[in-house]
Amino acid sequence: MRYAIYFTPSIYDPLSVAAASWLGRNVYSGEAPEAPPVAGFSRQELAFHTAVPRRYGFHGTIKAPFRLRAETSEAALLKSLMHFASTVTPFEIPRMEIARLGEFYGLAPSVPCDEMSHLAASVVQAFDTFRAPLSDVEIERRDPDRLTAPQFSNLHRWGYPYVMDEYRFHMMLTGPVHPNLNTRLEMALREFFGPLLNEPLKISSLALFIEPEAGAPLRVHSQHPLGKLSEHRPLAASARVSTTTISDLPAGASGTKAALVARRLQANC
User: Fold this and answer.
1) How many domains does the chain have?
2) Where are the extended beta strands (E) located within the chain?
3) The domain containing residue 111 runs over which residues?
4) Is residue 222 part of a domain?
5) What gap in Å lies between CA 207 and CA 199, rounded to an integer?
6) pLDDT tens-digit profile, the chain (269 residues)
């Protein structure tokens, strides 16, 4: 089993609803909502292009997946994460946008967010005592020969290349995309997610994800509100996984429609 500390919006957040539909998996329940209609792409094509991020679920990496040290436990990790989250002040990323991230597409801040970079660095440092050392196989899986010197150093010190000065917050929405598809897929992403990117992204919680076994889809284990719980009880309530899941939403809910459905659900929590 591996654990990861990620950011993901609460289950009823309009962005979570839309992302679950786009990726084909609800990261809270594991259920697969019906694929949305996307102009220019069949459902099979969309499933192919979202296969990689589907396994990891909709998230922004804070601390990459890691195995626990033998001398610690899940209970200790949870206790530490709850305490850590309570000491962090919630904040907002003013604007997210559809971005080309190497061979992939995803959501990224329109301008760098120092608060997010600081949070990520703090989490990596604070929870490194829970991380088991990387095996030789895990190191090779990162293809160390292709890493820069700082990335190589991060891999051996922190277990992941893209931390500290190499960190860039993003939320993946596709796997590798052939250059011939760039324009079409980017247009589809902008049409689908555009209505949801007019508001700031609230960073109000940290989520503990688990990978039950090697290669299994990651899912939300627990979500931990930032700051004092009394300051934002509505978030804490909506963050709990209830019996209503993404699969209960109307088929094909996306974009503005997804936002309206999700807001109705939030109002009833």
Assistant:
1) 1
2) 2-7, 60-66, 91-93, 96-101, 104-109, 171-172, 201-203, 205-211, 219-225
3) 2-136+166-267
4) yes
5) 21
6) 999 999 999 999 999 999 999 999 999 999 988 888 888 888 899 999 999 999 999 999 999 999 999 999 999 999 999 999 999 999 999 999 999 999 999 999 999 999 999 999 999 999 999 999 999 999 998 888 899 999 999 999 999 999 999 999 999 999 999 888 889 999 999 999 999 999 999 999 999 999 999 889 999 999 999 997 655 554 444 444 333 333 333 333 333 434 443 443 333 33
CATH of residue 39: 3.90.1140.10
Instruction: Please report how many Cα atoms fall inside a 13 Å half-sphere around the Cα of residue 185, on the Cβ side.
Output: 23
For residue 96, being part of any structural domain is answered with: yes
57: three-class secondary structure by DSSP? coil
Pick the closest to residue 138 from 155, 153, 126 (CA basis): 155
- At residue 162, what is the residue type? Y
How many residues are given for the chain? 269
